[in-house]
Request: fold
Amino acid sequence: MQPIFLCAINNILSGTCLEDCKFCTQSVRYHADIERYNYKPIDQIVEEAKQAKAHGALGYCLVTAGKGLDDKKVDFVARAAKAIKAEIDGLNLIACNGTASKEQLLYLKQHGLDSYNHNLETSKRYYPNICQTHEWEERYETCLNVKSVGLALCSGGIFGMGEREEDRNDLLQAIASLEPESTPLNFYHPNPALPIKTRNIEQDEAIEIIQKARHLLGNEKLLMVAGGRELLFHGEEAKMFEAGANAIVIGNYLTTPGEAPQRDREVLEALGYEVATSCDRH
Reply:
């Protein structure tokens, strides 16, 4: 069996977003009961990266709330990236900071960034149902910018927000057209503060999505089950790996709790999977 790649994420700027994405508790519009704070101290970010690496994470993502990068965010993320790279070897450093220009992305790359995550979220057709403050095309353009500066692209979406099967298929086709190195599949986690009240996806549909994504993306790419994994696959993790997933997010998500990293390691061992120790998959 192929090894499973582990990735951890760090919400380094939380709950300050002015956009209206109906799936996101970090929007200030919905007053969700989450922790909100400005930039974490860089030394804290480095220590948390060390903890993630100790748990086996090969990928480490620096996430900021907000529509996209501005001068202050670019500077902060660049300094954080440089500090992490100076102290930790063998960590694939990812940033997820919203829409970004080629110039901003190149600056981050020059300061140690390896990859950039920007999800398409849903189909172009369905996107106005979940967000009105920016357009789907802006997301796609950012993904193209990532590739143009030589960063690895991480791009996926969220399933279970009321979309139809054709929207799910269109999203997967759009993601595949970008040829990302890694694709996170998230499954909507309802929150009473958010406009989208329920999750319209069950485990069998999630398995089908994983299978379709693997077919479209090919066998060489990372296919990650991320947010919502514990809602659909807790105790049945084997099903997502059998369907084609070869990566998971360990630890907590941005504003919701995830599985304990040690539990995930124990589950993988019990299933007979090794944890990947290198980002080189060839």
